[in-house]
Amino acid sequence: MENLEEDSLYPTLLNALITGGLEPIAQAAFDYLKHPFILVDAEYNRLVQIPNEPIGDMIWDSIWENDGVPLNLLQLFSDEHLLQKNYNSNKSFFANWGSLEKCPRILSNISVKNSIVGYTATLYLHDACTEHDLAAIDLISQVFAIEFQRQNLHVTEVHTMWALFLTNLFEGKIKNHKDLAQWELYTKHSLNRDFCVVAAQPYKGTSEQSSLPYIRKSIESFYPLLHPVISDEYLYFLLSDISSNHSYESELKSLVANLADYNLHIGVSYRFSDVLDIGIYKDQATLAVANGSSSADPSHVYFYQDCALGEFFLGASEHMHKQNYLHPAIHELRDYDKEKNTDYLHTLSVYILSMCNASETLKQLHIHRNTLPYRLRAIEKIANLDLNDARTCAHLLCSFYLLQYAE
Question: Which helix H or strand E contains 196, and what residues bound it?
């Protein structure tokens, strides 16, 4: 194999460096390798593409049309472990699997001061890749690194990778803390503890789901790192570093104020500490929107804490026959009231749902304070109850809640 020092690559690259700029270096690489060549920055924005035209390769043409690698392609490359390998490789490598099987390419990264600032791809439509080609790409990448540093192009915010990270996070594709740590390297951003998920959905009758991409773009203009993720007709946000020493509702005021102009129903999850649990809290925020938007509440911000109990009891009632979760006293008192024209079941319901608070029960029933003890004794006798028994009261409490949410 001919040494690189002995062929034309060294003087060609030296002349490109003297000329200055990324394009002369890319052109030198193309002239030497005779293969389509592309350079993107760390955000996967297209910097140079030679030839600067479609060539019939789906990936190449998509990058050319979008002026960079679109998010759906980055997701595909991530699923095929191409992003990970390219990020972690110290040298260029030949990729011929997955989406690159029919049109392989040499991939390499460009590093300045141990920070990746860009990537190259050299397409091999017909010819075989050689060790000489790989060595040439390594040298070309080093020359690009010199030019990046000379132009001070190595300072970049990796918003594209951050967007991809959040999409993967919300879709449950990041499974463990090892993967999470790797993504933090990709994005150059560490997540602080204490999170909540916010879900947003347009009001029915507005511009509906077609407005979601527009809303996402607008939100990103004043919250660059928030990056809403569109999934299942919702916009999802991950808020981090939520203060743990007070209610995080106040932390949401700025976001909610900016979302208010877009006619959105907004749901907020509980606070949580492990970001890998995001799927649970994504569901909470979604349920908060669904419950709130279907209620008579005129507010457009709904908290899962306000509907959690209903979700719990609704789930139980859907999987159990009513006779299995209702305390038998409820049927007995209902029949007795119907026969004797009394109101014992309602009295018991108010008493139990007020957590056996006599003062609150008297206030709600508008009865004399001596009437309540009489009614409770009658209820105990009719239904064979002991209202001093904690388990009995707990069963009755669950039964009355289940009746509220099931009927």
Answer: strand 196-202
